[in-house]
Specification:
The protein is an alpha+beta fold. The chain folds into two domains: 164 residues, 2-Layer Sandwich (D-amino Acid Aminotransferase, Chain A, domain 1); 166 residues, D-amino Acid Aminotransferase, Chain A, domain 2. Strand 12 and strand 13 form a beta hairpin. The two termini are 13 Å apart. The structure holds pyridoxal-5'-phosphate and 2-OXO-4-methylpentanoic acid. The site of 2-OXO-4-methylpentanoic acid has 6 residues, from loops.
């Protein structure tokens, strides 16, 4: 593990935290006092620095801007009633960042840099972690190519950066989603299974079209047939059909969500029937017609559990049961919240104290 002496620390002269109510800020707009930056060049990881949050001087020729060598993670820290800060499953984000790095031809970030930088940053900025029931500190680790060079080839220099921001709910209300059958998010052999920045850029236009039709998000379908559901927006997708929890099996077109994995673990632990397999639109439509589509929700770090109350498909809307009737997803949402806030036993050992 990296020690403090390996990181050059330049503290802010006066914290900005009193300028905000960290329990009541819009998602992703207000950044905490410090940022962590590690630099890679000459074939190895070099200096690590924590300094006041601010702009990074880089060239407009920086290769990540042109050729998309840019990957990121999303994770959260929580504060318990005693004021102690804990991270939710941070090693899973560390492993996934490096999976993304390999696919995008970028150097892997060593564990001592990822975890050492993260823990040191959180110690300095613990006052920014919200105390409210649904609040958390959203953490954005990212890796970008920094060569000042035109020409399509892997960069030889990179920066690994961590910035954080206090966050409340990503979706303030249950959402309506529309099945997308013209555009797709990911393709076999592509980069859908990693958190490459380009995956998000390509999603914006179809999402804008969905929003113009009155939906908050799309349900992505497979690129070959558009017959199978994959994800919704930036969330993994789950259904309760009858008494079974059903979710698309992981593949190279689906991001292996850490929230998804946690929901499945809690479901299995509670004795619920769980199926991870291909899920066809036909099957979802049949279940809706037969009154078997009891719950639908998206899950992800930013969104936590986002209840889906309407699904637009082939010009019609499936109107789903009210949230108050959804036993499984309301329970799992609450259980995750209690584990994260240190209010119930963490039997899966998910929380890491800062
Ligand atoms: N799918 C996509 C495309 C995402 O961007 C995210 C968010 O990170 C997820 C799923 C959910 O993953 P996680 O639960 O690890 O945040
Ligand atoms: C997350 O859930 O952490 C995401 O990455 C989604 C988003 C804010 C891009």
């Amino acid at each position: 593990m990296i020690t403090t002496s390996d990181i050059k620390i330049n503290k802010i002269a006066k914290s900005r935290v009193t300028d905000y109510d960290v329990n009541d800020v819009p998602f992703g707009k207000c950044f905490s006092d410090h940022m962590f930056v590690a630099e890679y060049f000459d074939g190895k990881w070099q200096t690590s620095t924590i300094s006041p949050y601010g702009d990074v001087p880089q060239s407009y020729a920086m290769s990540s801007l042109h050729y998309g060598q840019a990957i990121f993670e999303g994770m959260k820290a929580y504060k318990n009633d005693k004021g102690e800060v804990s991270l939710f499953r941070p090693l899973e984000n560390f492993k996934r960042l490096n999976k993304s790095a390999i696919r995008m031809c970028m150097p892997e970030v060593p564990e001592e840099i990822f975890m050492g930088g993260l823990l040191e940053l959180l110690k300095l900025d613990s006052a920014w972690v919200p105390t409210s029931d649904s609040g958390s500190l959203y953490i954005r680790p990212f890796l970008i190519a920094t060569d000042e060079a035109i020409g399509v080839k892997p960069s030889e220099s990179y920066k690994f950066i961590i910035i954080t921001c206090p966050a409340g709910k990503y979706y303030s209300e249950p959402i309506k989603v529309i099945v997308e059958t013209d555009y797709f998010r990911a393709v076999h052999g592509g980069v859908g299974f990693v958190k490459a920045a380009g995956n998000y850029g390509r999603s914006l236009y179809p999402t804008k079209l969905a929003q113009q039709k009155g939906y908050q998000q799309v349900i992505w379908t497979d690129s070959a047939t558009h017959h199978f559901v994959e994800e919704s927006g930036t969330m993994n997708l789950m259904f309760v059909l009858g008494d079974t929890l059903l979710t698309p099996a992981l593949s190279d077109t689906i991001l292996a969500g850490i929230t998804r994995d946690s929901v499945l673990a809690l479901a299995r632990d509670s004795g619920m029937k769980v199926e991870e397999r291909k899920v066809s639109l036909l099957e979802v439509a049949e279940a809706y017609k037969n009154g078997q589509l009891n719950e639908a929700f998206g899950c992800g770090t930013a969104a936590t559990i986002a209840q889906i109350v309407g699904i637009g498909f082939e010009g019609k809307d499936f109107v789903l049961p009210p949230v108050a009737d959804r036993k499984f997803s309301t329970k799992v949402d609450e259980t995750l919240r209690l584990i994260r806030k240190g209010k119930v036993e963490d039997k899966f050992n998910w929380m890491l104290k800062v």
